[in-house]
Design a protein that fits this description.
The chain has 3 helices and 3 strands. It is an alpha+beta fold and 79 residues long. The longest helix has 7 residues. The relative contact order is 0.21.
Length: 79
């Protein structure tokens, strides 16, 4: 979208509608990830943006918006 004065406007973003949790210590070790660096998808709402993107229960997110860390807070603030 275009805004006036050279400022871009953002269109409303549909929520991803997914539930995540941090990796357990065994999962962190198995995946060789730093603690607190990734999340596991616990649930995906049918028909949501996450569902349309192909995210599924059990997927591990290791980055958000091109950044190499995925945390619940990053998912909330990503858009």
């Amino acid at each position: 979208m275009h805004g006036s004065g050279g400022r871009g406007l953002r269109a409303p973003v549909e929520p991803l509608a997914l539930t995540v949790r941090g990796l357990s210590i065994p999962e962190t070790n198995l995946l060789n990830r730093p603690r607190g660096d990734a999340v596991v998808i616990v649930d995906v709402a049918p028909g949501s943006a996450a569902d349309a993107a192909g995210l599924r229960r059990g997927d591990v997110l290791v980055g958000v918006d091109g950044e190499p860390r995925a945390t619940p807070l990053r998912l909330l603030t990503a858009a």
